[in-house]
Amino acid sequence: MTEATDHPLALVQGGRTAALAGSCVRGALAAGLGLGSVTVLVMVMWISSPYPDSGPGGALHVSAGVWLLAHGAELVRPTTLSGAAAPVGVVPLLLVGLPVWLVYRTARDAAEPGEARPKPSAGGAVAALTGGYLLVAAGAVGYAAGGPLPAEPLGAALRLPPLVALAAAAGVWTAHGRPTGPLPAWVPERVRVGLARSRTATAVRAAGAGLGVLVGGGTVLVAVSLVWHAGAARESLLGLSGAWSGRTALLLLTVALVPNAAVWGAVYGLGPGFLLGTGTAVTPLGVTGAAALPPFPLLAAVPTDGRGSWVNWTAAVVPVAAGAAVGWFCGWRMRGEGGHGEGARDAGVGDAGVRGDAGVRHGGLRDAASAALLAAFCVGAAVAVLAAAAGGPLGTGRLEAFGPVWWQAGGAAVVWTAGLGVPLATALRAWRRRGETGPAAVPVPAPVPARVPVPSPDAAAPAPVRTPGRSAPEDDPGDPAFEPYDFLPASWEDPAAREARWTALKEASGGLVATFPAAAEAPASPLPHPEPPAYLGPPVYPEPPPADDATGTSDTPGAPEAPEAPEAPEASKSEQP
After folding, report:
1. What pLDDT is stored for residue 38 in this prediction?
2. C-alpha triplet 93, 381, 426: angle, nearest 5°
3. In the chain, N or C terminus with fewer CB closer than 10 Å?
4. Is residue 329 within 8 Å of 375, Cβ to Cβ?
C-alpha cells in the first residue's frame, strides 16, 4: 500500500466513494427487480393466451411499457382504427406501489450502516440510488420504443425522476430516524419552527384522518354500487373474453384499478364527480351528456340515470364524515395545548405577565380553528394530487378526458373539510375548555422566569462559604461571629444529659476524669454551654525503692511491693470534654 492510501483522509474518501457506488448499484438492482417482476407477469399472460398477437419479443416490449406506465409515464398506441396515435394515460395506482416500495426499501437499506461497508451521506445516497435507477429506466424507454406500447420520452423524463427521488428520500429519511425527529439544518428556520408547533402536528394528523375517511368512503361507495349493479359487472367481465386466461388478465387489471375507483368515488361524494369522456360528467345531481362507456367491470358501477335521486345524494355522507374527523382531531385531541406553547403566546400572556381565563379560552379556540383550517388545505392538496394521478386520457376525441378534474376535486375537499371541521373543532375545543377551567375560573398568574443578577466588575467578591466545624484557611480569618457548634440540638444543654455524658466518660477513662460539678457550684458562663475542666494528665504515683540488680528485690526487708502503674489511655483531643 502506498503512502497516499495509508492516509486516513484517503481511506475515508475511498469509503465514501465505495458507498456511493454501492448505492448506485442498488438503485439499478431495484429497477431490474421491478422490471423483471412485471416481465414475468406479462410473459405468463402471453403464454396462457390462446390467441397471442405477437411473439415473445412483442411481449417483452409490452412488459417494458407496462413497467414505465407504473411510474406514471404515458404510453402511446401507434396503430388505431383512425390511423392516429392514441395516448394511454390512466395509470393503475396499485401498480405504482411496486416500484415505490422497491425504491423505498432499497434506499433504507443503503443508508443503514453495515458491519463491512461504510455509511453514505443522506444526499449522496438519494442521488446515487436515483441515478442508478434512472439508468435502467432510460434503457427501458429505448427498448419499449420499438414495441406496440411505447412510452412518450418527454412524459417519462418529467415523471420518473420525481417519483424515484421522493421514494428514495423517504427511505433515507426513515433510515436516519427522522420521521419523528428534527428536520435537517438546511431547512429554513421559519419552516422548522412552524412544523414543530403543536397545531401543525395536530393539523397533519387531522389531514391524514380526513383523507383516510374520504378514500375509505369512496371505496365503500364503489363496493356498494358494484353490488347494486352486480349483474352488469358480471356480464362485462364474461363478455370481454371467453378464455380463462383473458378473464384472469381482466380481473388483475380490475384489481389494479381499485385505488383509482376509490378516488373517483371520493370525488363523486365531494360533488364535482368525474368525467367519462369529453362533455360527460357524473355527479350526485345526475349525469350530463352521453357517456361513452367501454365495457369494463368497474365502469358498470357508474350510475347512468339522468337526474340524481336521494340514493345518489347519500354519497354526501363521505365528505361529512371527513369533515367530522378533521374537527374531532383538531378540537378534541388538541386538549391541553391551548394554554401552552404557541397558543399561550398568541393570546394568553401579556406584558404584565398575567393570564386570564378569557385569554386562555380565546387562544385555545383560535388554535383549534387554525389547525382545522390548515388540515383542510392539506386534505385539499392531497385530494388534488390523487385526482390528477387517478385519471388521464384513454384515446383521442371523446376519450381524451377520463376521471376527476384535479382542481375541482381539491377545491371541493377544502370547502367541505373547512366548512365542517372548523366549526366542529371550535365547538369541541370550547366544550373541552369549559370542562377544564370551569365557568368562573380565577386568573392564574403566569410563571415568571427567575432572573440571575449579573455582578458588576467593581463589586466585591462574595465571602467563601465554609462547612460548620471545619477550620478556615490561614489566609482567611472567617466570620468572627461564627459558632461551630450551632448545629447541636437543644437537648445537648440539658443538665441531666450533661451529667450522664460526664459519668460515662469518667467510667471509660478509669477514674482519670474528675467528678461532674454540681449544678449549684457550676459557675455561670455566658457561653451557650459550659467549658469542661482542663485535662491534668495521668495520675502521678510515688517511685518505688531501688531494687537489687541480682535478685530483683528491694533492699529493705518486709517492704511492700509498689503496685504497677496503669497505662495511661491515649485519649485523642477529640475525646477530651
Report:
1. 95
2. 130
3. N
4. yes
Task: State residue 465 phi and psi, 5-degree precision.
Answer: -95, 125
At 320 the pLDDT is 96
Distances (CA, A) of 41 to 139, 241, 525, 534: 20, 19, 109, 109
What is the torsional sign of CA 346, 352, 356, 358?
negative
The grid cell for 527 is: 457561653
As a whole number of angstroms, the distance between CA 412 and CA 323 comes to 12
Average pLDDT, the chain: 77
More confident residue, 38 or 434: 38
Res 114 pLDDT > 90: no
Which phi and psi angles does 365 have, rounded to 5°? -65, -40
Q: Report d(CA 266, CA 413) in Å as an integer.
A: 10
Residues 316, 318, 321: CA angle, nearest 5 degrees: 110
Helix 317-331 / helix 406-437 crossing angle, nearest 10 deg = 40
pLDDT at 436 over 50: yes
**Between 253 and 541, whose confidence is greater?**
253
Rounded CA separation 11/34 (Å): 35
Alpha-carbon distance of 417 to 266, in angstroms, equals 13
Q: How confident is the model at residue 546 (pLDDT cuts 50, 70, 90)?
A: low
3-state helix, strand, coil in the chain (%, to 5): 55, 5, 40
Residue 150 in contact with residue 76, Cβ under 8 Å?
A: yes
C-alpha cell at 516: 461532674
Give alpha helix (H) positions in 229-356.
Answer: 230-240, 244-256, 258-270, 310-313, 317-331, 341-347
Give the residue, 143 or 56, on which the prediction is more confident: 143
CA distance 204 to 375: 6
Partners of residue 392 on adjacent β-strands: 402
| Residues forming a β-bridge with 151 | 75
**Helix count (H) and strand count (E) of the chain?**
17, 8
* Rounded-to-10 torsion of CA 247, 250, 251, 253: 160
Check: CB of residue 380 under 8 Å from CB of residue 362.
no
Answer for the pair 233, 182: CB distance below 8 angstroms, yes or no.
no
AA letter at 172: V
Q: Is 428 helix (H, G, I), strand (E, B) or coil?
A: helix
Q: How many residues does the chain have?
A: 577
Specify whether the backbone of 279 is left (phi greater than 0), alpha (psi in -120 to 50) or beta. Answer: left
